[in-house]
Write a structure and sequence with these properties.
With 329 residues, the chain is an all-alpha fold. It has a two-stranded antiparallel ribbon with strand order 1-2. The longest helix is centred in the N-terminal third of the chain and has 24 residues. It starts with 8 loop residues before the first helix and ends with a helix.
């Protein structure tokens, strides 16, 4: 998901929320914080939820304690208007595959102990891989920030806790597979709400936690560099970068697959039917890749195919229905 590496709106919103904690805050800080929340939400609903958690963690104390509440109230009004507009448009347009979140989908879409850390080949093969991972170093530095009494550290740690709990989904488990032992989350009621059924990939909400721990880590490294010297700060930064590289495992986990369109398509005059295999695991990763490659081929051969290249999902795949009929004969 490219949008996940192109989201300046979330940190920009946090920046202006931070400015509103200062005595000399201005009205335009509230306007920009609200606008950047809207940008986050319309980039992705999951990013919007992460932005909402950051907004609550940083904005609520300002609303309760600040003498100048106008900027934060203005930010809240703009954010609420953006959220209502988003919900209206989302329900009006409709998402054919978004309303079917069974227990297997929720389990794969939530973080577990097997996916929140270093990548596993088994998770890559039969589960759902994640590029998001909690950094042990960043989390440790965030705790140091709290011990150093850095301003706002407790608020951001609350954001870390809430976003991580949401990211772990309605059922906490050691692994992402059905046979894993599970326990009910104290926030499981979120998925019983009318809009909660759309929170299928709750693991993406971890962006709020990553933002908070990154900000706190940066402040702590800056403070440590001032006390112990620049070389110590550089060593900590190198440690964080190495951890990210080792945890996520890129680029070693990537593989190159051929994308050339088979020449057999040139022999067809009309619509074509692609007789390909089907995935047997619950994650749907194989079917999703098959859908993507067949639609890629169509951009080159231009024949009609029995594939939905707009809405990906087993409930909307005409090819899979036809494949079942062909296989039975």
């Amino acid at each position: 998901h490219v949008y996940q590496i192109l989201i300046p709106w979330l940190p920009l919103m946090a920046l202006y929320l931070w400015k509103m904690q200062q005595p000399d805050t201005q009205l335009h800080h509230g306007v920009l914080a609200g606008v950047f929340f809207g940008f986050s939400l319309f980039t992705s609903g999951y990013i919007g939820i992460a932005a909402g958690l950051v907004g609550l963690g940083m904005g609520l104390p300002v609303l309760l304690r600040s003498e100048n509440r106008k900027p934060i109230m203005l930010a809240g009004i703009i954010a609420l208007g953006s959220a209502l507009l988003y919900v209206y448009l989302f329900q009006t347009v409709g998402q054919p595959g978004a309303a079917h979140a069974n227990s297997d989908t929720l389990r794969m879409g939530s973080l577990s102990l097997s996916s929140v850390g270093p990548p596993s080949t088994e998770v890559d093969r039969s589960g759902h891989s994640w590029a998001l991972a909690l950094s042990a170093s960043a989390l440790a530095l965030s705790c140091v920030a709290w011990r150093m009494r850095i301003a706002g550290a407790r608020r951001l740690l609350v954001v870390v806790l809430l976003s991580t709990l949401v990211a772990m989904g309605p059922q906490w488990s050691i692994g992402s597979f059905s046979e894993a032992q599970m326990m009910t989350s104290p926030l499981a009621g979120l998925w019983d709400l009318p809009m909660g059924r759309y929170l299928r990939w709750s693991g993406r909400v971890l962006w709020a936690s990553l933002l908070a721990t990154s900000a706190l880590s940066a402040v702590v490294i800056s403070r440590i560099s001032g006390r112990l010297g620049r070389s110590t700060g550089v060593a900590l930064v190198v440690m964080l970068l190495l951890e990210v590289w080792l945890m996520v495992g890129l680029p070693s986990r990537q593989s190159v697959l051929p994308g050339d369109t088979p020449k057999v398509y040139l022999e067809a005059d009309g619509p074509v039917y692609d007789l390909v295999g089907q995935g047997i695991n619950a994650s749907g990763e194989v079917d999703g890749w098959t859908n993507a490659i067949l639609c890629h081929y169509q951009t080159q051969h231009s024949h009609s195919i029995a594939e939905d290249c707009v809405t990906v999902g087993s409930e909307s795949s005409a090819r899979k229905e036809l494949a079942t009929w062909v296989a039975s004969r």
